[in-house]
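Why does this matter for the project? Reviewers at the last site visit asked to see concrete outputs rather than summary tables. In response, this paragraph embeds two records directly. Each consists of the residue sequence and, immediately after it, the corresponding structure tokens. Nothing has been edited or filtered.
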Amino acid sequence: MANSKKPGGLREMLESMYSVIALLFILVACVELCDAAAAFDVYRLIQYDMSGSPFGSRFAALNHHAASLHFPPGVDLSRTVLIIPLRELNITFVREYINQKKPLGGLLVLLPEVLSFKTGGNNQVHEKEKMKNLLAELERLLIHSNIPYPVYFAFENDEIDTALADIKKNDLMGQPATATTGGYKFVIPTAEPKKVASPTMTNIQGWLSGLKTDGDANQLPTIAIVASYDTFGAAPALSVGSDSNGSGIVALLEISRLFSLLYSNPKTRGRYNLLFGLTSGGPYNYNGTQKWLRSFDQRLRESIDYAICLNSIGSWDNELWIHVSKPPENAYIKQIFEGLSNVAEELDLKVGLKHKKINISNPRVAWEHEQFSRLRVTAATLSELSVTPELLESTGGLFDTRQYVNETAIVRGVKLVAESLARHIYGHQGKNIQIFADESSLAVNPAYIRSWLDVLSQTPRVAPFLSKDDPFVMALKKELAGHVDEVNVQHETLEGIFTFYDSTSARLNIYQVASVTFDLLLLLVLGSYLIVLFSFLVITTRGLDDLISLFRRPPSRKLKTA
């Protein structure tokens, strides 16, 4: 009876042993996936095509070991993600690596926390100013290069600093992270980017009607105040453009609020219509402005005396520039310049004039007013920028955050434009009359400017990634509607030479993985232990003969039959 149960008990013991060994293999295989050191948000370098040519980061998924700038000479980085803090960035090294197309598994640029739009405040101003030019140069390099690997930005924190310190230590010891040696592994499990199909642009138009007297059959003249609200930068998910052109949007909203107070009373309503335009597609040759203007009927277009476009007026010291396409001798151009100059002199400011002819055959549009000039409408751009920006530059980059914008500069810009417009509308040119005097009911409201500047400085606004009913677009429409008689919204498709791709942000997982040698050694030790344990149990419970019989070759089938 006992002998008949013996094989069954041994079989159960073997099955238990196999289960333990299988579990061991599973645990060893999962060592790499179970030791997560940290996880945080990262922001991908923009990916786009211009006239069919690829630019930006062409991949998104990442699964490589990490290395620092202290990697040993001659090491293969084709399966390595390189971590570079902005404070340690050598722009020459990065430029050579990209231009020479050296192999790299991925690039992670660590930005100081003070640059995050989530932190706010104005601390460590000197440190930020010191890095501004470096970051601007890096951004120009990245957005105009075709990079065949994932490039991400992230903000420094304690977890990434700790991991980077360990990585540097290993690199300095000549032990870079590999599958053999172990180390830190960076994983971004995301799908590969897809083209953004039919990206939309939304233009918002506000209208304040002037006072029309009885028997006046002629249409009232119109003055347009315009600002482009979208941005472009190396990382779309971080492109908030506090100055370019958040400052212009804030100024337009405050100007519309001030004139709504004047126009709400028939006694102070001017004999000019005021047209307010919040346009999209600014970084892309002001494509939205072009479509908005072409939607005007001829009567409205001919009624516009002139347009003032507001662009980057939030970080100037004492001088603004008026950019025009028509000759300075033009009557309307002289009127605009003299009106602004007179008010600027009273405010102890300076206003300069820059004339640049447009080339109708060249599709490149450097300033928003040039779209008006192409349709023979007099217009000017007021900006702190004295030099014409290059394509896709000065459009809300990584360094264009709340900390770099001066609220006082925007307040002075609003007073300059509002006073100049009011004197023109009410016929007070050349007179030292302050319509929007401080401490009066018509004074510029710094708190209003500050609140909207805070909102804009936390809202990325890259046009291809803003939907028609985006909460930010709806908020702009609602705010403008509170200051004007009528608001219209125009939805258009972004057309032209640009194609954009999605996947602008992701979640980075950092794993601290053991080396393959360690895994094999651990497996060998545990396997040996289980074999010894099993042998001991069999000998003590069944005897040495049973243990030896396990390893004997079973008799053949023929022998059994005989």
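We now turn to the second protein, recorded in exactly the same manner.
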Amino acid sequence: MATKVHVGMETEMNGNGVPETFKNNWKKRLIEFSGKMKRSPGWLWRTIWKVGREDPRRMIHAFKVGLSLTLVSLLYLMEPLFKGIGTNAIWAVMTVVVVLEFTAGATLCKGLNRGLGTVLAGSLAFLIEFIATKSGKVFRAVFIGAAVFLIGTTATYMRFFPYIKKNYDYGVVIFLLTFNLITVSSYRVENVLKIAHDRFYTIVIGCGICLFMSLLVFPIWSGEDLHNSTVGKLEGLAKSIEACVNEYFNDSELKENQEKSSEDPIYKGYKAVLDSKSTDETLALYASWEPRHSRHCYRFPWQQYVKVGAVLRQFGYTVVALHGCLLTEIQTPRSVRALFKDPCIRLAGEVTKALMELANSIRNRRHCSPGILSDHLHEALQDLNTAIKSQPRLFLGSNNNQANNMLALAAAHAARHNKPENDRHGVSLSSVKTDSSALMEWKTKRASEQAKENERKVLRPQLSKIAITSLEFSEALPFAAFASLLVEIVARLDNVIEEVEELGRIACYKEYNPEDDEIIVKCEKPPVDVAKNQLPTHASD
């Protein structure tokens, strides 16, 4: 049976009046859904394995959270504990869920913020309740409303203070929540004091379980994560530079990597550096809350790690530009690149060695080697300079050819402007026709003009590329940019070394000893401005 649905369109119907196309679509969807359901167990297992393999501590943290929730649930499950606390035990469960974080520093920060906010809010609420009870019922309602408005406005505005927002924002939120719950409920509830006490005790129990799990059961330190991430960023940049220079001078086609830039090891090396700003600041904040847990009996300058990360990001931008030289449309011929291969590879190798030495010095908490900038680095720079000077025609070109090119361009420009108006625009006047053949001719001509215009748009980029490559010195321009960025990397290496040495001086790194026979600690008092920039180690600061 065929039913016309629209002019020029027909659809087939089955015996039940359902279109065949809809039926086929539903069959395809069911088949696709069943296939996804069959593949989901394997996908889920691969995801679980991948997440755990990337960082095995994630599995440990998951078990810690599960064990903490089990312990705090005993307040409900055990009859003696439930009789003593009652339904307020749910606040302990909520505290564990909210406070227990991946690292000890994050748990300490949220736990102490929650405890401090609860104590301050409870004390202020009871003070307002004591004053309000001495007055009449109407004045009491007005006083409570005015207090809620004033305290809420003041506390919310204080959240915009940079220091408060950075260190105690969560504590201010808990302060507002607890203060409003106690103050407003006290107007209707008679026994609000006992309820507040029970909630406070359950919150203390939840925070205590969280701190116990974070500090004593397989602790994960934010300071160690920040320390190791700094080492990893230095090593990633070193690998990126070495791989980038080696790939630039090898014999393989460079354009094959354009479609695989996200999987490129060069890209992976500097990506972690460019995306590290917020992570470094967060880890430094949490690390400042952590106690002195290691054999180092002094406090590490975590903010100096943030400064090192900022310098590495500036260094990484140059590596990104260097990697872009591999993906440009116009490339220097391999025969020209081969003239400068040896000094460039040696220069990149020396930069890589310096970065690896910096990474090892931070990993082992020791000062850098005195010969981190060896004579080989300066020799490679001199050799590169000499190689470039020995090929002046590649970069400057011939004056006679440049003059000829200028004359040719001027002649073409004059010829274009001397054309008649009609020829310049490609328009020819046709005789006027009034019959239907004139309309068909006009349509045919318009279609051909549109096809030519589309072809012209497609060829315009190619013609631009041909015009650029026709310049005599264009073959050397891509390599000039590559060599300039390589020299810029060497220049920015001094800033990285300076910040790492400052980190070692403030953090009292041991002196460099190639044989590691003894540990000599050289400690200087940090400057006043660095000490002021340090974050507090406990909430009372």
